[in-house]
Amino acid sequence: MRHYTKDNFRLTESVGFQLVKARNLIVTEMDAALKDLDISGQQMGILLMLRQKLASTPFELSKMLGIDTGLMTRMLDKLEAKALVVRSRDQEDRRVVNLALTKAGIAVADQIPEIAPDVLNARLKDFSKAELNELRRLLRKFISD
Length: 145
Description:
Keywords: DNA-binding, Transcription, Transcription regulation. This is Transcriptional regulator, MarR family. This protein is mostly helical and 145 residues long. It has a single domain, classed as Winged helix-like DNA-binding domain superfamily/Winged helix DNA-binding domain (Arc Repressor Mutant, subunit A). The protein is 57% helix and 7% strand. The chain contains seven helices and two strands; from the N terminus they run H-H-H-H-E-E-H-H-H. Helix 1 crosses helix 6, helix 2 crosses helix 5 and helix 3 packs across helix 4.
């Protein structure tokens, strides 16, 4: 089904515009909330993925977080400079770079669940549980291949 045409397309009413605006609001609010941890919302995603063992290489992180490999490299450089992440070559395949959290990285990652829910809850305060579930369902549908 074609929902948009040249005659009815209005930028500010488009799903793309509204998703970007929603993302930018959350990123700004999350960045502010994480300021004391000296990390950004994007860096939070990397730390939590590593902490929860959902990814262990830059490629896996890029794929899961939807971030291009160049940006991922720059973000990992920053996290490594902050001594939160270490990179090492895989013993069996030297082309593969493995990632691990340092003790400081674990400590920061473990503080995130004390902060992030408040940011999301503030944005979702007017949603019922059913509305939140429906939003999640629709977003999963939207991003599925």
